[in-house]
Every structure is written in C-alpha cells, then in structure tokens.
Amino acid sequence: MERNDYGSLIAQWKVDLIRSRARKFYFRDDEVPDLEQAIVPEIINAPFDPSAPGASERTFVISVIDRQLLKVKRDRKRDVRRVNYESESLDEIVFTERASSALERSEPHELRLDVQQVVAGLTPAQRAICQALAEGCSQADVARLTGRSKAAICAEVKRLREKFRALGLGEHAGEDSDQDRT
To answer: Is residue 58 part of a domain?
Structure first.
C-alpha cells in the first residue's frame, strides 16, 4: 500500500491514527492515502485547546478524523442516491430496451412480455442491479457501485431470482437449468 510522507508537517502517530480509524469505518486499504490527504489539513487547521477540562490531544484528533470519515460516508451515500434518482427513468428505458432487443433475437413474443412484466414490477434499485449484472458486473462490483454491502446485494439477487422463478423464468435470472434451486 502506498504511504503518504508528511515529513515534519504532522506527527506520524496522527497519520497512523487516520489509517486505524479508516479501517474501523470499513474503508478499503486503497482508499486510505486519499483519506489521509483530505484529513491531514483538517487536523492541522483544527484548533486544539489543551487547557480545556479533560482535553487530550489524542481524543481531539480522533474526533476530527471520525467527523471527516463520517462526512465522506455521508457524501458517498448522497451521491449514490442522487445518481439513482437522476438515472431512474433512464435505467428503466435502457434496461427494458436492452432486455427487449435480446429477447427479440432469441425468444418468442410471450416470453419477452413475461420478462418485461417482471422488470416493470422491480424497484429502481432492483432494475439497477439487474442492469449491472446483465452488463457483466459481479455482485461485488454492484455492491461497490451502489454503496451497499455484498451481503445485501446477494440477498437482493436471491429475491430477484425468486421473482423470475415465480413466473417460470429462472433461466433468465442467471441460473443454470441443472443448478440446485434450494
């Protein structure tokens, strides 16, 4: 992993604390250098008052770091919500057209209508998951793109497969016909 070198600009224990807190907030190791670059100036510019009762520099630095890490998490969630909201109608059009054109080439008209019926009944988030999977993304990729955990995406994919399976369309939900469906 790359390490930023701050020289005498900031004490090394503070940089190590950023790394430690970032891991506790479940940031990936490859994100830590960027987080350090964003948080170090905040620590340097934050006014610490050692005369305040019960004040310790470590506690103060932890509060600055945690506040910045929470801000990054909130910003990411807000961005994901905004993108999902803005692309909701576009996703529906693109995914429905892509599914329709694929089915027109290889499946009868009735089957195309059944798949369109399932897709029409999905939430925007479920359609986004289906679209990403149809484009070849892994469930881990979808989790990263949506800001959700891989476990949540796996559970959602399982629910989506059940919806397709309920209409006899399990093979159109990424299942092999020989696969155990328990």
So the answer is: yes
Domain boundary among 57, 75, 93: 75
Q: Is residue 88 part of a domain?
A: no
Total of domains in the chain: 2
Q: Of the candidates 125, 129, 51, which has an alpha carbon nearest to the alpha carbon of residue 84?
A: 125
Number of H helices, E strands in the chain: 7, 0
Kindly state whether residue 92 falls inside one of the protein's structural domains.
Answer: no
Distance, CA of 164 to CA of 172 (rounded, Å): 7
Domain span at 165: 107-173
CA–CA separation, 71 and 22 (whole Å): 12
Q: Is residue 40 part of a domain?
A: yes
Half-sphere exposure of 64 (CA within 13 A, CB side): 23
Burial letters 75-108, b for 16+ CB under 10 A, else e: eeeeebeeebeeeeeebbeebbeebeeebeeeee
pLDDT in tens, 65-122: 999 999 998 888 888 777 766 655 444 445 555 554 544 444 455 556 667 777 778 8
The residue type of 166 is A
Contact status, residue 1 vs residue 22, Cβ threshold 8 Å: no
